[in-house]
Amino acid sequence: MVRAKKPRAPALQQGTQTSDAVFKGWQKTDLGESFALYNVTAAGHPSLGSTVTGKSLLALNLQIPRTPLRPVKT
Question: pTM of whole model > 0.85?
């Protein structure tokens, strides 16, 4: 008896991540502070394509992606 193999999902490339947003950069305020900005990438989310802060991501129930360290003030 020959058994049919179960189809397998294609393997993800190493380093491939699914995330709700991507880091875009740091925005400086008039006071010289800075905050991170992200673009929403969650498929089907009403805010898809919007640029938001980390606080906004949390309010939208989305995960904050890895974020580089804040630049040092000079």
Answer: no
Question: At 25, which helix (H) or strand (E)?
Answer: strand 21-28
Residue 8 falls in which region: left (phi positive, over 0), alpha (psi -120 to 50) or beta: beta
Burial class (CB in 10 A: 0-12, 13-18, 19+), 45: middle
CA distance 34 to 54: 12
71: Cβ–Cβ under 8 A, 6 or more apart, which residues? Answer: 26, 34
22 membership: H or E segment, kind and range: strand 21-28
Q: What is the pLDDT of residues 12-28, one digit of tens each?
A: 444 445 689 999 999 99
Cα angle value 62/67/73 (rounded, 5°): 130
